[in-house]
Every structure is written in C-alpha cells, then in structure tokens.
Amino acid sequence: MESDQAKAAATQVFRNRAAMARPQHRGRRRMAHENRVLLFALASGLAGLIPAMVLLWTGPYSGSTQWTLTVVIVTCWLAFSFAVRGMVMRPLQTLANMQAALREGDFSMRARVGNPEDALGELMREVNALSEMLREQRLGAMEASALLGTVMGEIDVAVFTFDPESRLRLVNRAGERLLSQNVERLLGKTAIELGLADCLEGEMARTLEKSFPARSGRWGMRRTIFRQGGAPHQLLVVSDLSQALRECTVYDEAGQLLTGSYMDYAMPRAEDAPLFAHEFHSVPATTNPLGAKGCGEAGCAGALPSVMNALVDALSEFGVRHIDMPATPERVWRAIQHSRAQE
After folding, report:
1. 331 versus 145: which is more confidently predicted?
2. Are residues 245 and 224 in the same domain?
3. 234 phi and psi, to 5 degrees?
4. Average pLDDT of 6-34?
5. Is 77 in contact with 49 (CB distance < 8 Å)?
6. Is residue 163 a contact partner of residue 169, using CB atoms and an 8 Å limit?
7. 210, containing H or E segment
8. What is the pLDDT of residue 13?
9. Looking at the structure, do residues 197 and 256 belong to the same domain, yes or no?
10. Rounded distance, CA 18 to CA 21, Å?
11. I need a labelling partner for 199 at 20 to 30 A (CA). Which of 97, 209, 301, 320 fits?
12. Residues 64, 45: Cα–Cα separation, whole Å
C-alpha cells in the first residue's frame, strides 16, 4: 500500500514538473506585424472615409451617384491600405530570406537597393555589404585551410591532434607513415591504442626513446595545448635531428650504396641534442590579404639551418665560419684544423 502511494506521489511530481516546463501562453495571441500595419492603414483612411460618406449620403446626389462614389472610395481605401501592407511586408521578407541564406552559408544573394538615400535603402545596402564581407571571409578561410592542409601534408614531421578524451582528430602524412596506418584507420582511436599515451604526459618538450611501427629510435617531441569549440585539445609534433647531425648517404665509385642500414646510416640519440626553448615571432606577409606565407618542407627548412648555425656559432672561437652537413665529428675536427692552418 505504501509502495503504491509512493509511486502515485512520484507520478504527480513528474506531472507537475512537466506542466511547469511547458510554455505558458498568457492572453491572446499577438497579431502579426503586417496585419498591425494593415490595421493602422485602415484606421488612418477611416478618419477621412467617414466624413466623406456623411457628406455624400446627406448631399443632394442621386442614388446611383452615391453608390458609385461609395464603391470607388471604399475600393481605393482598401487598395491603398493593402498596398501599404505589401510595401512594408516585402522588404522584411527579403531581409528574412537573406538572413536565412547567410545562416546556411549562401552569400550569393543580394537585396535590391531602391533609393539609397532613405532608411530602407541604407538598410539594404548594409545587408549587402555584410553578405560581401562574409563571402570574402569564407573564401579567405577556405584558402587558409587549403594552404594549411598542403603544408601539413608535405612537411616531413609527424603531427597529431587529440581531443579532450585523447582521441586522435587530425594526423598528417608523416604521422601515417610513422604509425604505418592510413588516416581512416587512425582517426578516432585513443592515444593508448596508438601507443602515444606517454607522449601526452610529462614535459611539453623533450626527447625520448621510443619504438613506432615504422621505426625505432630517439625522438624530439613537442606538445602544445590549444582550444577548439571551448574544449582543450593537444597538438603533438614528433621529429628528429638526424639529417642535420648524422644523415649522409654514401656511394662507392661503382654507385653501390654504402650506408644501407642504421649501422652505417647513423641516427642521433638524446645525448646528442640539448633541450630546446621556442618562441613565436609572427610577421604577416604583405603580399596577400591573409598575411599567409607559403612553405613546403617546413619541418626541416627551419630545423636544419638552426642546428648548423648553432654549431658554427659554437665553433666561431676556433675561426670556423662554415661547415657542410652532416656535421660528423670528423668534419668538425677537419674544419677546426683547416681554420687553424689558415691562421
């Protein structure tokens, strides 16, 4: 019995909450804007219609004249009132259609500007200007996205983006090659499933020794946090410095490759590279409205000269002004000896 009473009480509570959640319509429904305009137009004409009817029907006119003039006056009164309603309603409908098109991403619609000197013409002109501005912004965003996609696809640095749940949302071609899977199989997987969970923890920039499906070695890793849709995301960049310090393909006189394995084609390790600090120096380009700069191999285009310039700067006290890649210990020693011999 008590159980039935409790169920009944709970049901009544839910019904009360549902009734409170439903919108309450108080009073009569509001009249549409165009109908209010029509009503005011009829009321304005009625102020002159009534005296005209009084004078017409009380004057010395024949019955046919009275009925003819009455029909003409009433018809004109109604026609002009509905014309006023249409003049107000049509521009508003045009603006509503344009707003709906802008909301759906269609920026091709334009409103016809009648008299640019009046308020309605100025409003139409401003709406057209807004549509044109949004169209240019959409084109700029599409061009920037295409440029970013091209750069991401061409750089030889693995780039990964993870959402707040540590699921992969973006990967470039270098990341696909590093994990030996195509993008369709990678997207949506967690960092644990991809073997990248340790890369999303610890210091933001560091070197680590790790085995990937494509190859193993010591890698330079940098992690950055950004926000998208109000939620924090993580950008992970995995690269190495092997090309600047040790990579060198060597052939013999017969064209036989001598550095065909990692036993000969040396790869740098963590002790070969220091920790790096980075900063942003944004200088927009002046050759295009976006300020964007095109680039191809952005991953190695900046890393290689930075490493070699740092090496030459360190050897400047020995008189070294230039050294070719790869900067092997033998080449560094020869550069020092050559500089000393010239002194």
Report:
1. 331
2. no
3. -120, 135
4. 57
5. yes
6. yes
7. strand 205-211
8. 47
9. no
10. 5
11. 301
12. 24
Q: What is the DSSP string of 108-157?
A: ------S-TTSHHHHHHHHHHHHHHHHHHHHHHHHHHHHHHHHHHHHSSS
167 pLDDT tier (thresholds 50, 70, 90): very high
Let me know whether 101 and 130 are in one domain: yes
- Find out whether the peptide bond into 60 is cis, omega within 30 degrees of 0: no
- Give pLDDT tens digits for 71-125: 998 999 898 888 888 888 888 888 888 888 888 888 777 777 777 677 777 888 8
Residue 305: CATH number of its domain: 3.30.365.10
Distance CA 323, CA 336 (A): 10
> 205-249: per-residue pLDDT in tens?
887 778 888 877 667 888 999 888 888 999 999 876 555 555 666
Q: Is residue 286 part of a domain?
A: no
Cβ(220)–Cβ(240) under 8 Å? Answer: yes
Q: Is residue 327 in some structural domain?
A: yes
> Is 222 in the same domain as 250?
no
Contacts of 144 (CB under 8 A, 6+ apart): 290, 292
252 with 216: CB under 8 angstroms?
Answer: no
Q: Are residues 54 and 131 in the same domain?
A: yes
Domain tally, the chain: 3
Count of residues for the chain?
Answer: 343
Residue whose tokens read 């000393």: 340
Q: What is the CATH number of the domain that holds 171?
A: 3.30.450.20
Residue 215: name the closest of 279, 160, 278, 267 by CA: 267
Judgement on whether residues 134 and 35 belong to the same structural domain of the protein: yes
Position 44 confidence tier, pLDDT thresholds 50, 70, 90: confident
Based on the number of CB atoms within 10 Å of its own CB, is 236 exposed (0-12), middle (13-18) or buried (19 or more)? buried
| Residues 130, 37 share a domain | yes
Sheet with 158-162: strands ordered across: 168-171, 158-162, 231-239, 216-228, 205-211
In the chain, what percentage of residues exceed pLDDT 90? 8
My answer on whether 92 and 189 are in the same domain is no
pTM of full prediction above 0.70: no
